[in-house]
Structure formats: structure tokens, C-alpha cells
């Protein structure tokens, strides 16, 4: 009998896992996805939408699940009886499983009172109003803030860069853009080379960077910081802090995150796994979530008798930084031992060169966008073939003009392919 696998969640980690099962164990597992939201949102493009540089798209989750060889059931996971192998849903349904993968993400909560909390698609219209206030001259000093705690800082850096470019394009000479982050350097997680490249880019755009500071609140035109100081600001746009929803029967930290091992197994529970933002791994990012999902799916597939390798989670951070002009591709292996893997380039470092990077999910979404393979790119006799690393050892080719990473012109390079671009 096929092993019954239940995936709780309808986001990046959940779809990556479903696609991994289809690739490695489709005859050995029956996969069911449960999620409260009937749509899958391509959220990373939300930062570009207010500037007219992208459009957030969504897809019917039941159709995506079917394409991934799974079924979809509406409902949120609220409890687990690991001994009986039963999952409890918000709809009062009970579902039996042989293996459970918890991939329900995390909940964004306000972290900086008085600031506009930018959570993604839900707040693009509010930020578009901020841009209108800039054009009208009612906002001159705008700060973008990263709170302490669980947060992914790349979107706020993108908003700062695109706002600075927007001010130049609209000849808003009096607008001052600031970035506040508790990191020692902007996007420090990407390693020294990438972080230094981002710092140079911020300085070139005239963005004032206040690193090593935690934003507390905006009141009376002042953004209070820790250590004790403040910045004058007419408007502050801040990232939310992430928290995990409580799930009865599942061990969680004080902030709601689920501890797992290198294969995604939830500590203390048999046949229960977790992947993505709900886990206690400190980096909350879509590409990291897909890597965790792959590790868990491979382990579950191997338990079901498939030939999948039990490869542990090995975090490799990949980020496509939107700047308002030419994007930057950032890559870093998070091994906490060496900084030689930090890379920043105007040329793609992976394929497809999109915002969400996943072994199975990225080409799946690229297919939905009409880019099925590298062969879809036009060939040019004067183009340079560039080998792009894809996960482990596999390489593919893409094409673009030869550009030195340190001397790239803003108009050179390869346009990122992704939904909404």
C-alpha cells in the first residue's frame, strides 16, 4: 500500500515537498495537502508592484496540487496526535497519516509601532500611497527598518533601493532615504563579499545606513532606536516579526517555532517532519524552505522504499535583490566556518534566475510563466555562454553579454525570469 503523506501548508515548502515526492516516490506515496488559503501567492514580487515593476500573481492551490500529483483539502492544522498518527484541522476534520510534514509557515506581527508594516501583497497598496505622499512633498525623510528577531531583511533593502531610484526618476531631490538594521552590515547573512556589494550599492544611491541598531517605535516624527538614540523620519516602513502558530501536540519554542534535525524530523515525534518558516532554523527565506522540504521529502520517500537519498539539509542562501535598475544575484553557503562562498553578481548564479529558488519548485513555476528551459532564451552569436550552478553538481547554460561583476553597467546583464516580470 502506498504510504499516506499529509502536508500541512500551501506555500513554498509545501509545494516543493509535493513536487519532490512526485519526482522520487510517486508510486510509493499518496500526498494530500491541507491549507486554509485556497490560493498560492508568488509573494517575493510584492516589493516591485507599487513601482510598476512587477505584478503579484496567485494560483489555485488545488490545481497546483493536482499538477504536483497531490490532492488539496481546505483547513488549517491545529493539532497532532503523533501516537495515533492523526492530524486535527480547523474544520473539525481528522486525517490519518503515515507521515506528516508541517510546512504551514509563520505569522507576521507588527514589530515597530507607528510604522507601516510591509508584509507582502496585503500591503502593496498602502506602500503605493506612501509613494504618492513622496511625490506630493508630504514625506521627505523615509526610513526602512529591520526589527530584531525572526525576520527576512532582503525585501526591506529592496524597497529602500527602489524608493531611492524612484526619487531620482521623479526628481524628488529633497527626499532622504534611510535604512536601519540590527545587522552589523546590510544583508550580513550573505557573507562579506555580497554584503559589501550591497553596502556600496546603498551608498551609490545616497541611502543613509544605520547598522547595529534596533528600531523600537515611530512617534512624533522620531524613530527611536536601541542603543538609545533616534532618527528624524516622516515615515517608517518596517518588516514584521515572525511567529509560529501554536499546534497542539507539537513541541514549539516560546515564539512558536518547531525544532527539527538535519532531515526535518520534529524532535520527540515519530513520523512527523517540519520545513520552512515554522521551523526553529533562524533564517526565514523561501529558498531555505525548499531545501528543508527536499531533505524531509527525501527522508520520507526513503522510508517508503523509494530510492531517494537521505541527504541532510545543507543551507545555501540564494537571493535575487531587486534594485529598481539591474538586479543583483547573491549567494552564500551558511556553514558558519568560512566566508569564501559569498558571491554577488549582476549575472545569474542559478537557473531559472527567479526570486524563489527550489530544485523542483523553481522550474515548475518557470513553466507556468512560459519559460520551460534554458533553450527558451534567444541565442546570440555575440553572447557568452555562462555556466550556472544548480543546487549540487548539475550545471545548465544561460546567455548574456560578457559582464565583469565589478564593472557592470546598469543596463547590462540578464533579465531575471520570474512570475510578474
Helix count equals 7
What is the number of domains? Answer: 3
The helix content is 10-25%
Which fold name is given in CATH as the topology of the largest domain? FAD/NAD(P)-binding domain
Number of distinct beta strands: 25
Give a written overview of the molecule.
The chain is α/β, with parallel strands linked by helices and 421 residues long. The chain has three domains: 3-106 and 244-303, FAD/NAD(P)-binding domain, CATH 3.50.50.60; 108-241, 3-Layer(bba) Sandwich (FAD/NAD(P)-binding domain), CATH 3.50.50; 316-400, no CATH class. It is built from seven helices and 25 strands. It has a five-stranded parallel sheet with strand order 5-2-1-9-20. Strands 11-18-12-13-14 form a five-stranded parallel sheet, covered by helices on one side. Helix 1 packs parallel to helix 6 (286-303). The longest helix is centred in the C-terminal third of the chain and has 18 residues, at 286-303. It is elongated, with a radius of gyration of 22 Å. The model is unreliable at 372-421 (pLDDT under 50).
Amino acid at each position: 500500500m502506498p504510504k499516506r503523506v499529509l502536508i500541512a501548508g500551501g506555500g513554498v515548502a509545501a509545494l516543493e515537498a509535493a513536487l519532490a515526492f512526485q519526482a522520487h516516490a510517486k508510486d510509493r506515496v499518496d500526498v494530500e495537502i491541507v491549507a486554509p488559503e485556497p490560493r498560492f501567492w508568488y509573494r517575493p514580487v510584492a516589493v516591485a508592484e507599487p513601482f510598476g515593476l512587477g505584478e503579484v500573481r496567485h494560483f489555485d492551490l488545488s490545481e497546483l496540487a493536482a499538477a504536483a500529483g497531490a490532492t488539496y483539502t481546505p483547513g488549517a492544522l491545529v493539532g497532532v496526535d503523533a501516537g495515533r498518527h492523526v492530524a486535527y484541522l480547523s474544520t473539525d476534520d481528522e486525517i490519518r497519516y503515515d507521515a506528516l510534514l508541517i510546512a504551514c509557515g509563520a505569522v507576521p506581527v507588527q514589530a515597530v509601532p507607528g510604522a507601516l508594516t510591509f508584509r507582502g501583497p496585503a500591503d502593496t497598496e498602502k506602500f503605493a500611497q506612501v509613494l504618492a505622499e513622496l511625490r506630493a512633498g508630504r514625506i521627505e525623510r523615509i526610513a526602512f527598518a529591520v526589527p530584531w528577531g525572526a525576520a527576512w531583511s532582503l525585501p526591506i533593502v529592496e524597497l529602500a533601493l527602489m524608493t531611492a531610484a524612484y526619487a531620482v526618476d521623479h526628481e524628488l531631490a529633497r527626499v532622504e532615504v534611510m535604512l536601519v538594521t540590527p545587522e552589523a552590515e546590510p544583508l550580513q547573512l550573505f557573507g562579506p563579499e555580497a554584503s559589501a556589494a550591497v553596502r556600496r550599492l546603498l551608498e551609490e544611491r545616497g541611502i543613509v545606513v544605520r547598522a547595529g541598531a534596533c528600531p523600537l517605535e515611530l512617534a512624533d516624527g522620531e524613530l527611536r532606536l536601541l542603543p538609545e538614540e533616534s532618527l528624524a523620519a516622516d515615515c517608517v516602513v518596517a518588516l514584521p516579526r515572525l511567529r509560529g502558530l501554536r499546534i497542539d501536540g507539537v513541541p514549539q519554542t516560546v515564539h512558536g517555532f518547531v525544532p527539527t534535525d538535519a532531515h526535518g524530523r520534529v524532535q520527540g515525534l515519530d513520523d512527523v517532519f517540519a520545513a520552512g518558516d515554522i521551523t526553529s532554523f533562524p533564517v526565514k527565506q523561501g529558498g531555505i524552505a525548499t531545501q528543508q522540504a527536499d531533505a524531509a521529502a527525501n527522508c520520507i520517500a526513503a522510508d517508503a522504499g523509494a530510492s531517494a537519498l537521505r541527504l541532510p539539509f545543507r543551507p545555501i542562501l540564494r537571493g535575487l535583490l531587486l534594485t529598481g535598475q539591474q538586479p543583483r544575484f547573491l549567494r552564500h553557503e551558511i556553514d558558519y566556518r568560512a566566508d569564501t562562498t559569498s558571491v554577488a553578481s549582476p549575472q545569474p548564479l542559478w537557473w531559472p534566475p527567479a526570486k524563489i529558488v527550489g530544485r523542483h519548485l523553481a522550474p515548475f513555476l518557470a513553466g507556468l510563466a512560459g519559460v520551460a528551459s534554458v533553450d527558451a532564451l534567444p541565442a546570440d552569436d555575440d553572447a557568452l555562454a555562462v555556466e550556472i550552478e544548480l543546487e549540487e553538481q548539475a550545471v545548465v547554460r544561460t546567455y548574456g553579454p560578457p559582464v565583469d561583476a565589478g564593472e557592470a553597467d546598469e543596463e547590462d546583464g540578464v533579465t531575471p525570469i520570474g512570475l510578474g516580470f
